[in-house]
C-alpha cells in the first residue's frame, strides 16, 4: 500500500471506493504479535505470543477476561485493546444487572462492531488499531468471532491474527475439519502447535505464550504456566518421533530439497 | 405512613445478626418476608454473598435490598477485572458505606450488616445505618427483632467498650459452634415476641475453609 491523496482523512473515499485510513488501521493489526483462536463444539481456546519490547520489561497483556463466559485475545495497538476490553466488560455487567443472565456473545460482537464503525465515519476520530478474537459460549454453543477495525465481524472455526499469522492459519486450515469433535486437551494441543508455527524456529516454551480456555461448565480463565509447560513437553515427545520419521524420508530426497527458494539458506538443510 | 400518596418504601420485617470470632464470622437472618400483618413468603433469603470472604445481610425494604446487592455485586466484578483479586471485607465495607451515602437524599431503606474475614483472617462485622454510617464491631443485629436481641448479645458476648485503652479485640473468644448455638438461641427467643421474625433461620459461617450454610426451622406463627 502506498501513500496517495485520499488517505489523510477517514472520511475521504478513494475513487476506487476504499477508505484508506480504515485499511491502514487493519495493517496495525498485522504488526502486533500473533493471537490465535480455535473452537470445538464445547470449548474455545485462545493463545497469544508474549512479545516483550526488551529483556528488561514484562510482556504486554493480550488476553482479557470479559465475563465468565466470554474472553478476548487482541493483536495490534494493545492500548486500544485494553480500552475496548473495558467497554466489553461493562456491557456484560450492565446486561447481567438488568436481565440477570449472561450477555449472548453474538450480541456483544455486534455492539463492538457498531462501536468500531462509528470511528470510521467521524472526521474527529480514528479507527481502533486492534483486532479482537472474541471467544464465548451462549445457548447455541461455542463461538469464536473476529472483530476488525473496519467494524466488520466474522465467525470462525479457527483463526489467527497478527504477525506471521499466515503460518498458523495454514496449519489450522489443514486440520479444522475435525475441531468440532476435539476434546479439551486436543484443542489446547492444536492451539500450541498453531502458536509454534508463528514462532518460526524459536523454541516454544510456556513463558513465550499465554493460553486461555472457555467451555461448557468451565468459566473463562488463563491456563497456568506449569500446566502449559507440561502440555508442551508432551508435544515435544510426539514431535521428536515425527521429525525422526520425516528425516528418514527426506534423506532420500536431497536433490529436490536443494532447489527450494526463499529462507532457510541452503546451508541450513 | 403508607397513607401518604408518595410513600415509596415498605418495611418487609425480619431480623439479621452477625458475630465475629477469632477466625470465623457467623451471619444469620430469618427468611420471613411480610407486609403489614401479612406474610408474603416464608422462604426469602436476606443474605447475599458478595465476595469469597464477605457476606451482606440486610433487613428493611427488600426491593432496595435486592437493588443494593446487585449494585455491589456489579461493582465487585469491576474491581476483580481491575485488580485481579477479590475484594477484602474492609474494602467492601467502605464501598457499601459510599454506595449508601450516594443516595443520601433518597436512601436505600436497608439496615445492613456486613460480615466476613478481614485481611488477617480474623472475623469482622460492620454495622450500618440506612445512609452509610458504619463501624466495625464484634457483633451486631438489625431489623425488627434487633432491639430484642441486642441486650442478650451484649450480656453473652461482653464486648469491651471501644473507648478503652489499650484497645481490646472486639472479636468474641467463643468457638465457632458456640457462636452458632448462641445465634440459634437468640433467634428462637426473638421469634417468640417479634411477629415479623420466624419461619426459618438461615445461618452462614465464613471461615478459612470457605462459606458454609445451615438452616434451622423457627416458629411459623
TrEMBL record, chain A:
Subcellular location field: Cytoplasm; Nucleus
Residue ranges constituting the Proteasome alpha-type subunits domain according to the UniProt record: 6-28
Gene Ontology, cellular component aspect: cytoplasm; nucleus; proteasome core complex, alpha-subunit complex
GO biological process assignments: ubiquitin-dependent protein catabolic process
Alphabetical keyword list: Cytoplasm, Nucleus, Proteasome
Keyword Transferase: no
Classification via SMART domains: Proteasome_A_N
Gene3D superfamilies, A to Z: Glutamine Phosphoribosylpyrophosphate, subunit 1, domain 1
Chief location category: cytoplasm
Keyword Ligase belongs to the record: no
UniProt xrefs under InterPro entries: Ntn_hydrolases_N (IPR029055), Proteasome_alpha (IPR050115), Proteasome_alpha-type (IPR023332), Proteasome_alpha1 (IPR035144), Proteasome_asu_N (IPR000426), Proteasome_sua/b (IPR001353)
Pfam family, one: Proteasome_A_N
Region listing for Disordered, in residue ranges: 246-269
Physiological role: The proteasome is a multicatalytic proteinase complex which is characterized by its ability to cleave peptides with Arg, Phe, Tyr, Leu, and Glu adjacent to the leaving group at neutral or slightly basic pH. The proteasome has an ATP-dependent proteolytic activity.
Assembly behavior: The 26S proteasome consists of a 20S proteasome core and two 19S regulatory subunits. The 20S proteasome core is composed of 28 subunits that are arranged in four stacked rings, resulting in a barrel-shaped structure. The two end rings are each formed by seven alpha subunits, and the two central rings are each formed by seven beta subunits. The catalytic chamber with the active sites is on the inside of the barrel.
Similarity comment text for this entry: Belongs to the peptidase T1A family.
Protein's name according to its UniProt entry: Proteasome subunit alpha type
Gene: PAF1
Amino acid at each position: 500500500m502506498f501513500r496517495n491523496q485520499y488517505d489523510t482523512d477517514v472520511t475521504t473515499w478513494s475513487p476506487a471506493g476504499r477508505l484508506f485510513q480504515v485499511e491502514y488501521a487493519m495493517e496495525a493489526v498485522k504488526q502486533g504479535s500473533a493471537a490465535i483462536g480455535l473452537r470445538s463444539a464445547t470449548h474455545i481456546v485462545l493463545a497469544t505470543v508474549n512479545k516483550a519490547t526488551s529483556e528488561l520489561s514484562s510482556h504486554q497483556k493480550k488476553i482479557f477476561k470479559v465475563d465468565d463466559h466470554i474472553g478476548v485475545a487482541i493483536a495490534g495497538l494493545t492500548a486500544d485493546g485494553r480500552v475496548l476490553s473495558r467497554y466489553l466488560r461493562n456491557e456484560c455487567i450492565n446486561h447481567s444487572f438488568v436481565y440477570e443472565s449472561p450477555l449472548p456473545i453474538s450480541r456483544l460482537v455486534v455492539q463492538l462492531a457498531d462501536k468500531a464503525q462509528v470511528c470510521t465515519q467521524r472526521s474527529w476520530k480514528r479507527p481502533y488499531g486492534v483486532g479482537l478474537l472474541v471467544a464465548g459460549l451462549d445457548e447455541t454453543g461455542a463461538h469464536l468471532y473476529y472483530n476488525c477495525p473496519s467494524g466488520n465481524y466474522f465467525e470462525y472455526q479457527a483463526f489467527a491474527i497478527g504477525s506471521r499469522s499466515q503460518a498458523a492459519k495454514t496449519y489450522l486450515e489443514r486440520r479444522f475439519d475435525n475441531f468440532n469433535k476435539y476434546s479439551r486437551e486436543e484443542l489446547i494441543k492444536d492451539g500450541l502447535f498453531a502458536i509454534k508455527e508463528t514462532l518460526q524456529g524459536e523454541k516454544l516454551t510456556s513463558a513465550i505464550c499465554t493460553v486461555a480456555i472457555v467451555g461448557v461448565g468451565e468459566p473463562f480463565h488463563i491456563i497456568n504456566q506449569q500446566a502449559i509447560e507440561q502440555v508442551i513437553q508432551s508435544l515435544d515427545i510426539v514431535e521428536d518421533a515425527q521429525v525422526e520419521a520425516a528425516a528418514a524420508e527426506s534423506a532420500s530426497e536431497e536433490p529436490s530439497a536443494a532447489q527450494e527458494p526463499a529462507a532457510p539458506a541452503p546451508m541450513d538443510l | 405512613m403508607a397513607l401518604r400518596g408518595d410513600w415509596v418504601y415498605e418495611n418487609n420485617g425480619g431480623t439479621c445478626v452477625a458475630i465475629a470470632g477469632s477466625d470465623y464470622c457467623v451471619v444469620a437472618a430469618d427468611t420471613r418476608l411480610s407486609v403489614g400483618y401479612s406474610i408474603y413468603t416464608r422462604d426469602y433469603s436476606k443474605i447475599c454473598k458478595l465476595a469469597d470472604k464477605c457476606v451482606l445481610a440486610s433487613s428493611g425494604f427488600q426491593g432496595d435490598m435486592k437493588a443494593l446487592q446487585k449494585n455491589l455485586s456489579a461493582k465487585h466484578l469491576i474491581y476483580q477485572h481491575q485488580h485481579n483479586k477479590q475484594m477484602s471485607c474492609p474494602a467492601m465495607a467502605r464501598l457499601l458505606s459510599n454506595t449508601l451515602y450516594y443516595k443520601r437524599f433518597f436512601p436505600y431503606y436497608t439496615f445492613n450488616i456486613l460480615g466476613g474475614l478481614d485481611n488477617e483472617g480474623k472475623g469482622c462485622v460492620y454495622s450500618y445505618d440506612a445512609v452509610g454510617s458504619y463501624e466495625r464491631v464484634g457483633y451486631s443485629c438489625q431489623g425488627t427483632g434487633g432491639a430484642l436481641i441486642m441486650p442478650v448479645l451484649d450480656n453473652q458476648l461482653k464486648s469491651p467498650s471501644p473507648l478503652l485503652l489499650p484497645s481490646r479485640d472486639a472479636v468474641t473468644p467463643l468457638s465457632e459452634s458456640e457462636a452458632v448455638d448462641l445465634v440459634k438461641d437468640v433467634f428462637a427467643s426473638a421469634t417468640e415476641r417479634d411477629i415479623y421474625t420466624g419461619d426459618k433461620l438461615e445461618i452462614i459461617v465464613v471461615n478459612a475453609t470457605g462459606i458454609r450454610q445451615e438452616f434451622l426451622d423457627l416458629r411459623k406463627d
